[in-house]
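Query structure, 413 tokens:
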């Protein structure tokens, strides 16, 4: 088939679509809905993945997190022995500091949650649901989160349980609308604390601020909440290259401290940036599978719609096909015309679906904390699939049209 015949086939297919606008729209609708739902989900999931990945990377590639149980623990699958596992305490933090030469910082974190939420006050200003935790002087180094105003608390203040605190950027903006927070006193759950520093603002995730917090020296935290013993540790290896060695040293030190037998597994959990990202990808992997299933059903319905409409179109245009063949059109010309028509219908549905999908994702992102990313690869794949659906769905109608006997079709009414 030469270029002229190809162009003629495309023009005839487009003319047929224009002459049956409503039917063409109804055919396009199924493909459009399938593609738009896929594009919207892909844009939101990729935005979510990008944000979470950035947050995890911001933790630092040489940081190790030590907890009582892994982050992805299924509590229903724990054995009775595992449920009785000893929590991580300050003893483990001190042991790692003393016995692990590849470690240059250990920051324990112990959080307190008051029923109804923690309340911070300064004069007439109040902040509710404020995060409170105790930690060590290594917090800044280990968490890559530093002071913006004032200073961090000192080791002597931790040791002597001084009633001082460091506050987050968001809390400072809420409580101190006019004054400099450094040196002022706040009431936190009716306990008076002197502010010695304000942390730098961290990037927000999902539209939520992470800086509505009060940080206490661990000794002060333990004085105020002696019953809160269970914590988790953030441990910084001296370098990314020493990360594996640091993990081995920590494992040996904690197994010895906690009396774990040689044949028994660890009774604590360690995680790194890579393993946390792996846990997250496992979770989102299920969402991707569901998304593929939904898109497959949507596109299959759209493909069936294209097939049905094209079969009806072949029947209605039997006389037209006979006339074309009578004046010299070959089977290949007719076959190509109807195949192009089917691919144009589904491809148009794909383009409109992509536009509506991106628009839907943008609106959802604008009115909710969910971020979005324009999925270039997803757009290419969605368009290719929509055209491919038309190609597959158009083969049978096109073959049937090409097989019409011109003599019989000329008498068809």
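Result returned for the query:
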């Amino acid at each position: 088939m030469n270029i002229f015949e190809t162009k003629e086939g495309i023009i005839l297919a487009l003319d047929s679509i224009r002459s049956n606008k409503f039917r063409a729209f109804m055919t396009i609708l199924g493909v459009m809905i399938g593609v738009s739902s896929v594009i919207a989900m892909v844009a939101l999931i990729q935005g979510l993945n990008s944000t979470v990945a950035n947050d995890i990377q911001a933790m630092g590639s040489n940081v190790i997190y030590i907890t009582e149980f892994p982050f992805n623990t299924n509590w229903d699958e724990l054995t009775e022995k595992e449920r009785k596992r000893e929590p991580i305490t300050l003893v483990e933090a001190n042991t790692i500091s003393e016995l692990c030469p590849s470690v240059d910082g250990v920051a324990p974190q112990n959080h307190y949650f008051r029923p109804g939420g923690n309340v911070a006050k300064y004069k007439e200003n109040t902040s509710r649901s404020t995060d409170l935790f105790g930690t060590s002087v290594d917090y800044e180094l280990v968490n890559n989160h530093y002071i913006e105003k004032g200073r961090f608390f000192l080791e002597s203040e931790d040791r002597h349980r001084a009633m001082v605190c460091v506050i987050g950027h968001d809390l400072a903006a809420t409580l101190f609308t006019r004054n400099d927070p450094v040196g002022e006193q706040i009431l936190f759950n009716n306990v008076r604390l002197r502010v010695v520093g304000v942390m730098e603002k961290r990037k927000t995730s999902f539209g939520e601020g992470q800086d509505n917090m009060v940080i206490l020296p661990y000794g002060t935290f333990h004085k105020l909440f002696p019953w809160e013993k269970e914590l988790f540790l953030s441990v910084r290896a001296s370098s990314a290259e020493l990360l594996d060695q640091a993990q081995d040293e920590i494992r040996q030190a904690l197994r010895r401290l906690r009396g774990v037998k040689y044949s028994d597994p660890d009774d604590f959990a360690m995680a790194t940036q890579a393993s946390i990202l792996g846990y997250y990808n496992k979770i989102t992997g299920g969402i991707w599978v569901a998304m593929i299933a939904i898109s497959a059903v949507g596109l299959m319905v759209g493909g069936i719609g294209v097939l049905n409409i094209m079969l009806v179109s072949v029947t209605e245009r039997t006389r037209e096909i006979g006339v074309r063949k009578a004046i010299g059109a070959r089977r290949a010309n007719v076959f190509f015309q109807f195949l192009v028509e089917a691919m144009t219908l589904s491809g148009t549905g794909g383009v409109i679906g992509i536009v509506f999908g991106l628009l839907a994702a943008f609106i959802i992102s604008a009115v909710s904390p969910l971020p979005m990313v324009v999925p270039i690869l997803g757009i290419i794949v969605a368009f290719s699939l929509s055209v491919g659906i038309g190609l597959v769905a158009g083969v049978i109608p096109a073959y049937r049209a090409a097989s019409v006997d011109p003599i019989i079709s000329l008498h068809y009414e």
